[in-house]
Amino acid sequence: MKEVGWRGCVLSSDNKIENVLILQGGGSLGAFACGVFKALVKKNIKIDIVGGTSIGGINAAIIAGSVDKEHPEHTLEEFWLELAENSVDLTNPVLQWLINKSRMELARPLKNPLQTTNEANSLLSTISSVFYGNDKFFVPRWRGDYALKDPQYFSPYRWTYVYDHSPLAETLEKYIDYNRLQPKGSPYARLIITAVNILTAEQLTFDSSKQDIIAKHILATSGYPSYNFPWIEVEPGIFAWDGGLLSNTPFNEVIDASPIIDKRLFFVENYPRRIEKLPNKLAEVYHRTRDIMFSDKSQHNIKMSKVITRYLRYIEELYQIIEKNIDPAKIDRKQLEKIRQTYKKMKHQHGAEIKNIFHIIRDEPFPRYYENTDFSVETIKASIKDGESKTNQILEKASVFNKN
């Protein structure tokens, strides 16, 4: 039943709260969100809106348009495992040499052997991504098979990108039913993904309830220029890059898309906002710099959203007092009507109340600057498991999910 306020303005729904899942970008770190979603499904938490950018946008599109309508979590995990299994493995001889060399040069009583091994593994996987790409996601333009199909193959000084991520579109055909990502397509959840207009630096928002989402929109949301990916022409004359350039956590776009129904938010954060100690070497300085750049910055907007909600309720209460206690003949009806129309407009644009917020944040026991390019099978599986475990811990402590 809906709560009706001043002169018929809808305030909220007594029995409806939208569950919103917001997914950050972060390359291979996006596997963490796969584990988060698996945990939410197992807890029977139905997601109403899923939003994301970059790899978060890819995850969101697979969730919303999954070819397996009953188990989108299986589809998402299969996607990640396929990416991992198709990464080029730079195997044991080089790996062992790196590990042994690291242990010899960094042999200190407090040096963690596991950390050294993980660093070597992660570095090798990154080297693999840099030189060979991943046939299911992105490939370097210098590969021999591009010589006949790339007009600029022999003119690298004219390149505006190094890696072609169009193979991702072919891979996603196995996992996404694009007929579902349409205004009447019955997606698992409403899909909202973001990009940025290169020429105007304006946010671009692609919403499955308002337009058909197809492969080019997913390539646009994941076309990160610092990874040397290309821009995508999403409409004639509109060229798009990864939405993470403006905001790696597309909170505003999701809230603005559904501004009346109250929300329960699940933020999946690949880049921690807080750390316990200062960096102690230059590599950790770069790592922390990156984390700060891409960390969630929606706290102020959330606070303002709550302030607006409170003010709207105060206005409603004041109006009720006026109607009950003041002689209508003493009121300027035109002025009151103007105030009512302003209130109605604000309520329509900002009426949703944020009921709960859950921040599910990826831990970084061994910070590495290149960890978001590690697509190795071991790392991807561990990241999925970590996301599921972390989500279960948070949900177990949340009283809203433990009433029975």
Describe this structure in words.
- The protein is an alpha/beta fold.
- Helices cover about 40% and strands about 15% of the residues.
- It has 12 helices and 12 strands.
- The protein has helices spanning about 30-40, 55-65, 70-85, 90-105, 115-130, 165-170, 215-220, 250-255, 280-295, 300-325, 335-350, 375-395; strands at about 1-5, 10-15, 20-25, 50, 140, 165, 190-195, 205, 230-235, 240, 265-270, 355-360.
- Strands 3, 4, 7, 8, 9, 10, 11 and 12 form an 8-stranded mixed sheet that branches. Strands 1-2 form a two-stranded antiparallel ribbon. A two-stranded antiparallel ribbon has the order 5-6.
- Helix 2 (about 55-65) packs across helix 3, helix 3 (about 70-85) runs antiparallel to helix 12 and helix 10 (about 300-325) packs antiparallel against helix 11 (about 335-350).
- The longest helix is centred in the last third of the chain and has 27 residues, at about 300-325.
- The chain starts with a strand and ends in a 7-residue tail after the last helix.
Q: Helix- and strand-based class?
A: alpha/beta
Question: What is the terminal-to-terminal distance?
Answer: 23 Å
Give the integer mean of the pLDDT values: 84
Q: Give me the number of helical elements.
A: 12
- Give start-end ranges of low-pLDDT stretches: 1-14, 102-111
Gyration radius, to the nearest Å?
24 Å
Order of helices and strands: EEEHEHHHHEEHEEHEEHEHHHEH
Beta-strand portion reads 5-15%
Instruction: Profile the largest sheet.
Output: 8 strands, mixed
Number of E-state strands: 12
Helical residue percent?
40-55%
